[in-house]
Amino acid sequence: MKLLQESKSDKLPSVKGSFFRCLTPQPNAKNTSHPMKHTTISAVLGAILYTGSASAATLSFDGTTDQDIVDASNWTTDALPTTGTHTGVVGTGQNVTFTNRSLYDDGSTGLGMTITFEGTSTLKNGQNAAVRLGSAVYTFNDSSSFSNFGANSSADNLIIGYNGEGATINWNTVGALVGISNFELGQDGTSFFNQNGGSVSVENNFDLTDGVYTLSAGDLSIPGLVIAVNGALDFTTNSTGLVTSSSTVDFASLINSGQITINGSSATVADFTITDTTLALAVPEPSSTALLGLGGLALVLRRRK
Question: What is the model's pTM?
């Protein structure tokens, strides 16, 4: 089931610069390219941001006022870690939240942020409203975690890619992403989610609209799977990740149509272990050559006795 687009009137006033507009797909623009080609755009964007921010500082969350990451007074130097300007670090043991769900760059707030969560730190949505990420890079390391307000209503959504701006979440933690009612990757901006461990749980809808969800390790629990023409579920070559759905999914059709891939390339059904509700990369059986080699080694060792 496709998530309902949020009303444009629900957005904050937007005065975007031409920089992000030229590097991200614009709303209603026709885009028929494969989602993996957008990685080139991400690479160019990252290079430009890096070379253009030689004076960028790494800001630490110190919680001077409270635990709100959108309050500049809670960061060292009293500045937000706005993407392309600064980067932010939330240290272990910090339990932070946000009181503004519109975490994207509207041209004035600077809420499109780059933040790394370390150790046992936690991020929690502090209001019963959809989270909207744009021009953002959130990286979760170690055992850090993220919980939305709760998965009890259609408002508890996680939208990655908003306001014509892409966003990226790097899930490098053994922790959990929970409390998500509806998950949409790339609603309005090509986006990426890279899961390298831990667990991600979604209750009602899981849509890959424009961008790539890469699964290298960990558990992905979903209610079903909708992949649009510009979306993809990608397994890395040696992925140990497991997808579990609470309803039947025609994984074979999605593989044959090129919407489920391996390392960004087309795959076959034989490359996976599939049931009606689970999907994982197949564990390759030993080749006949390898078996003959082991047999020969055993014979040599036996003769030496």
Answer: 0.78
